[in-house]
Amino acid sequence: MEKAIPEYIRFRNESKGQWARYGKTASSVLKDAEAKPLTDEELKRVIRELYFEKVERIVKQNGKVKFDVKWYHVSKEMSSETVEMKVTLRGMEAWHNGAFVKRWKYWEYVLDIAADYMLDKCLL
User: Fold this and answer.
1) Which value, to the nearest 10 degrees, does the dihedral of the CA atoms of residues 105, 109, 115, 117 take?
2) Engineering a disulfide at 57: which of 25, 61, 65, 102 sits with its beta carbon 3.0 to 4.6 angstroms away?
3) How far apart are CA 62 and CA 58, in angstroms?
C-alpha cells in the first residue's frame, strides 16, 4: 500500500489528463504558471502568520504560563483561561479566542535563533 500511493499520486499528477483542465495533467498547470514576487503587504502577512510551534496552555492564578521551560506573564485577569502560545519570527506570542494578547520579543537575530530553534527541535 505504501508503494502504491506515491505511484498513484505521480500517475494523477503527471500521466492522467483531467477533464476540468481540458485534458492537461495536474502538474502541467503548475509548469505553465509564472512565478510572481510577493508584494510588501503579502510578505508582511506571511511573516505575521508563520509560526514554528503552537500549543495551548492554561493561565495560572499568578497570570503566567509555562512554555519550553520558561514562564511568560500574560495577565492575572486571564487566570484559568486557555491561551495559544506560538513561536513566531517576531518572538513568542499569546493568543486567546483568535485575538492577539501579548508578544515577547526575545531574539535580536531572527534567522540565527530560528535556525537554532529548528535544529533543537530536529527540524533541520
Assistant:
1) -30
2) 65
3) 11
Beta bridge partners of 64: 73
Q: What is the dihedral of CA 26, 32, 36, 42, to 10 degrees?
A: -20
8 A C-beta contact, residue 87 and residue 109: no
Secondary element (H or E) of residue 9: helix 4-10
Provide the b/e sequence for 26-61 (b: ≥16 CB within 10 Å).
beeeeeeeeeeeeeeeeeeeeeeeeeeeeeebebbe
**pTM, rounded to two decimals:** 0.51
Q: Tell me whether strands 70-73 and 64-67 are parallel, antiparallel or unpaired.
A: antiparallel
39 vs 51, residue with greater confidence = 39
What are residue 24's phi and psi, to 5 degrees? -75, 155
Predicted pLDDT of residue 13: 66
Helix (H, G, I), strand (E, B) or coil at 20: helix
DSSP state of 113: H
